[in-house]
Amino acid sequence: MSPAAQREFDIIVYGATGFVGKLTADYLARAGGGARIALAGRSQDKLLKVRDSLGERAKDWELIAADASQPSTLNALAARTRVVITTVGPYTKYGLPLVAACAAAGTDYADLTGETPFIRDSIDGYHKQAIDTGARIVHSCGFDSIPSDLTVFALHRRIADDGAGELGDTSLVVRTFSGGVSGGTLASMLEVMNTASADAEVRRQMNDPYTLTPDRGAEPDLGAQPDIRWRRGSEIAPELAGYWTSAFFMAGVNTRIVRRSNALFGYAYGRRFEYSEVMSVGRSPVAPAVAALATAGNAAVMGLGSRYFRRLPRKLVDRVMPAPGTGPSERAREKGHYTVETYTTTNTGARYLARMSQQGDPGYKATSVLLGECGLALALDRDKLSDLHGVLTPAAAMGDALLARFPGAGVSLETSRLA
After folding, report:
1. H or E segment at 352?
2. pLDDT in tens, 357-405
3. Residue 222 CB neighbours (<10 A)
4. Range 53-89 burial, b when 16+ CB lie within 10 A, else e
5. In the chain, how long is the greatest CA-to-CA distance?
6. DSSP characters for 113-125?
7. 3-state DSSP helix/strand/coil % of the chain, to nearest 5
8. Among 134, 223, 256, 398, which one has the highest count of C-beta atoms within 10 angstroms of its own C-beta?
9. DSSP state of 269
């Protein structure tokens, strides 16, 4: 039995007093299935208020004081649990001390980061140590990047079962999306632009489609794989004829997570696997113009922001940021939803589709469910986890466990073979 299996807690939620942290704790109180859970954060008083709001099932959860500015508190936290799930971002500012603590303690870790430079720093600093201690450091366990990573993983499993070859040209299309961009996602995007605008090497990494790969030299040369593009739907799949698509604002991190999964699996998806993401804007007469304008806007924001963000007045930046601890109303969170479709053509010419959908605002309710399920999978489904350790992706760490958990969590993910 590993030391982690003998820990006092199954899961510690770090950042439980933040908006998404509270939602995640609430989900675990309802769906935890007997897991031993504790809440952690800087303020005991705020943690007590959160616990009191969670009802009878959480009344005995322990409250743990921990602060990213005091690494010793994070070391103590990591030593007490099998899994830490954290919502404390931006992760570039606050995340690495907890990654370091979990890697040293052999404790599994899951977060919500969409910050590519942070993930790269985590890999460079702690991947080897986490392998040695048996820790799984799993980034991007919310709407960024579970739908991307798990639809491709599900396609891989289906295609392998069918004996239909390897994945080739693969595209995720966001078909429906209702909800706002979460404060955490916005903060992460701004932090990435702030980091990139001060460091030319970070800008180079952000433009490299394989910047998160374990071995850059082992990657195939497949030419340009731009993240910001607009396309006719028919270029992706016949089923999308008449539709237009624009750039998807989270493609920059999601695509790299999926490519890292392929590399971690020893290129099981295929050596000619190409992956992209777009967002449907419909098929009305104005759809081509909408797609072009949305893509141009995305390119301008990311291109200019990654070079000049640090020149913006700090007060202006703060004005566009949501107040800490705030988010949409419960009604708005419940009304949100998303559907993504991932199309692929294998090297044998077979065509497949994976469709994933979930009720709930993608950045808030849906994300809290996905993060909670990742924590439960890491803590309770250890027989279904992969044999990999180190800095991983959701698919590489727990793809099969998540596919088994999704139906019970209200997450639909289905694959089909297309004509």
Report:
1. strand 351-359
2. 999 999 999 999 999 999 999 999 999 999 999 999 999 999 999 999 9
3. 14
4. ebeeebeebebbebbbeeeebbbebbbbbbbbbbbbb
5. 62
6. ---HHHHHHHHHH
7. 50, 20, 30
8. 398
9. S
Instruction: With CA atoms as reference, report the closest residue to 92 among 128, 123, 119, 73.
Output: 119
Token pair 């991190």 in the structure block, residue: 253
Cis geometry, peptide bond prior to residue 90 (ω within 30 degrees of 0): yes
Structure token digits, residue 177: 């999306």
Question: At 1, is the pLDDT very low, low, confident or very high (cuts 50, 70, 90)?
Answer: very low
Q: Could you give the 3-state DSSP secondary structure of residue 62?
A: strand
**Digit-coded pLDDT (tens) for 18-38:** 999 999 999 999 998 889 999
CB 44 within 8 A of CB 17: no
Closest CA to 247 of 190, 297, 189: 297
Please give the sequence-ordered ranges of beta strands (E in DSSP) within 141-195, or none if there are none: 167-178
User: How far does CA 80 lie from the centroid of its chain?
Assistant: 25
Q: Show the tokens assigned to 96.
A: 């690495």
3-state secondary structure at position 202: helix
Domain range 3-143+364-407, CATH architecture:
3-Layer(aba) Sandwich (3.40)
CA–CA distances in Å: residue 46 to residues 9, 21, 30, 112, 414:
21, 12, 20, 22, 40
pTM: predicted TM-score of the whole model, two decimal places? 0.95
| pLDDT tens-digit series, residues 169-220 | 999 999 999 987 667 777 777 777 788 888 888 888 888 999 999 999 999 8
Residues 6+ apart with CB under 8 A from 273: 166, 167, 168, 170, 259, 262, 267
Whole-number Cα distances in Å, 117 to 81, 233, 329, 397: 27, 31, 32, 20
Going from N- to C-terminal start, the domains of the chain cover: 3-143+364-407, 146-362
The per-residue pLDDT for 321 is 66
In one-letter notation, the amino acid at residue 239 is: E
Q: Which helix (H) or strand (E) holds 277?
A: strand 274-280
Whole-angstrom distance, CA of residue 74 vs CA of residue 219: 36
Would the CA dihedral through 166, 169, 174, 175 be positive or negative? negative
- Helix/strand/coil for 246: strand
Structure tokens at 249: 């604002």
The amino acid that residue 275 corresponds to is Y
Q: If you count them, how many residues does the chain have? A: 419
- DSSP annotation of 267 reads S
Confidence at residue 155, expressed as pLDDT on a 0 to 100 scale: 98
Question: Looking up tokens 């500015």, which residue turns up?
Answer: 69
Enter the tokens of residue 358.
């979930």
Cα distance between residue 322 and residue 375, in whole Å? 26
